[in-house]
Amino acid sequence: MPEHCPHCGTAVISVRREPEEGRPYEVWKCEDCEEEWRHPEETVLDKDLDFSGNGKQLSRRDSDTDMTW
Q1: Per-domain boundaries in the chain
Q2: In the prediction, which pLDDT does 35 show?
Q3: Is the pLDDT at 23 greater than 80, yes or no?
Q4: Where are the beta strands (DSSP E) in the chain?
Q5: CB 15 within 8 A of CB 29
């Protein structure tokens, strides 16, 4: 579950979108600044977005592709 908006720090909510055509999908939405990110395409794969609220979010893409083990 998302934590905080990377722009204003407000708690972020999860909203399910059900378009008339295509599959339903989830977006993470900030009610304060009205920003919205499609999950997981934008929330996980964009290194510049940090939803941790403290600036210490782990990069899932880096850890998933780490082959040094």
Answers
A1: 1-40
A2: 92
A3: yes
A4: 12-17, 25-30, 36-39
A5: yes
